[in-house]
Amino acid sequence: MTDMDKKKIVDRLQMLLTTADVLKAVAVTAAVIVAVIVCWRLYKGAEATDLTVGSSQVIDSTPNLIESIRSIGQWEFLTIAEEQLADTTRKGFFSDDHLVRIYYGTVRLGIDLTNLPEDMIDSNGDSIAITLPAIRLLDDKFIDEARTKSFHESGKWDGKAREALYQKAKRQMIRHSMTRENFENARANGELQVQQFLRAMGYRHVSIDWQKEGADARR
Q1: What are phi and psi of 84, to 5 degrees?
Q2: Which pairing describes strands 127-132 and 205-210: parallel, antiparallel, or unpaired?
Q3: How many Å is the Cα radius of gyration of the chain?
Q4: Which of 65, 95, 101, 193 is most buried, taking the most CB atoms under 10 A from its CB?
Q5: How many CB atoms lie within 10 A of CB 204?
Q6: More confidently predicted of 145 and 58
Q7: 3-class secondary structure for the chain?
Q8: What is d(CA 68, CA 190) in angstroms, rounded to the nearest whole number?
Q9: How far apart are alpha carbons 185 and 109 in whole angstroms?
Q10: What's the pLDDT at 95?
Q11: d(Cα 45, Cα 29) in Å, to the nearest integer?
Q12: Distance CA 128, CA 56 (A)
């Protein structure tokens, strides 16, 4: 065997050893990458598990719920269109003076949630119990004066007399519209609307109660 042949054999062996080292290094690197990927996935899996557990816990959102409900303000449940004829007579020495006018108005029954007390709401998970304020007249100025018509007028009438007739028509409208039947209809509409509102917020079990009517609820 010549020296040239020996050199070729040595070079061949060195090349094989170098290739083996490279393959070994590649294998080690691949193993490290695989280990890193596995560890990362395990970490993310544990993190996702923590988030899932956290999201299943019941979070007390009652203060936020109360503010959302208070922001509604007045909630109208029943509207009654009214038309009333009111008249007044002033006795005279020779003849009487008459003032007869027709008034139109819209009476709105509902509740005002602006100052709803916190203890009126009790929520737990997907269940909620709420006590609503008593049904009341929402707007005291319900007569549309622009639509008022003069039916009959004799003699001269000042602003004080006209205001007194206006107040008389207003009392007539209240007596005619704020009946027990209308209050019951308003409550029925209210329960339906409030239930739909709370269910839309995610509550599956809704219980609704009403405060007792105050002394001025039907004034």
Answers
A1: -130, 140
A2: parallel
A3: 41
A4: 101
A5: 10
A6: 145
A7: CCHHHHHHHHHHHHHHHHHHHHHHHHHHHHHHHHHHHHHHHHHHHHHHHHHHHHHHCCCCCHHHHHHHHHCCCEEEEEEEEEEEEEEEEECCCCCCEEEEEEEEEEEEEEEECCCCCHHHEEEECCEEEEEECCCEECCCCCECHHHCEEEEECCCCCHHHHHHHHHHHHHHHHHHHCCHHHHHHHHHHHHHHHHHHHHHCCCCEEEEEECCCCCCCCC
A8: 17
A9: 10
A10: 85
A11: 24
A12: 18
Cα(100)–Cα(122) distance, integer angstroms:
53
Q: How many angstroms separate the CA atoms of 167 and 173, rounded?
A: 10
Side-chain-side CA neighbours of 159 within 13 Å: the count stands at 0
Prediction pTM value = 0.67
Q: What is the mean pLDDT of residues 45-65?
A: 46
Q: Residue for token digits 């503010």?
A: 67
Looking at the predicted structure, is the pLDDT value of residue 82 above 50? Answer: yes
**Neighbouring-strand partners of residue 129:** 122, 207
Other CB atoms within a 10 A radius of the CB of residue 85 amount to 13
Annotate 135-160 with b (16+ C-beta within 10 A) or e (fewer): bbbbeeebbeeeebeeeeeeeebeee
Two tokens at 189? Answer: 């509409």
pLDDT (tens digit per residue) in 135-146: 999 999 999 999
Say if residues 98 and 155 touch (Cβ distance below 8 Å): yes
